[in-house]
Specification:
Layout lengths: L8 H7 L3 H10 L11 H13 L8
Length: 60
């Protein structure tokens, strides 16, 4: 496999998601109003990764 490939399948999938619209909705609904580290976007990315990788647990 070529090591110069930096574009992963996960990143290719993320390109199709409109994060500007995602952020606008999060702001309108005040979903991150009291969050410190685990934002709605981060949670979405974690759950998306877990689903794609068929992870049985998100615990480390």
């Amino acid at each position: 496999m070529d090591k110069d490939i930096t574009e992963t399948t996960f990143n290719q999938l993320l390109v199709s998601i409109n994060f500007n619209l995602f952020s606008k909705i999060v702001t309108e609904l005040e979903l991150d109003k009291y969050t410190k580290k685990l934002t709605t976007k981060r949670l979405f990315l974690i759950l998306l990764y877990g689903q794609l990788e068929s992870v049985s647990s998100l615990d480390s």
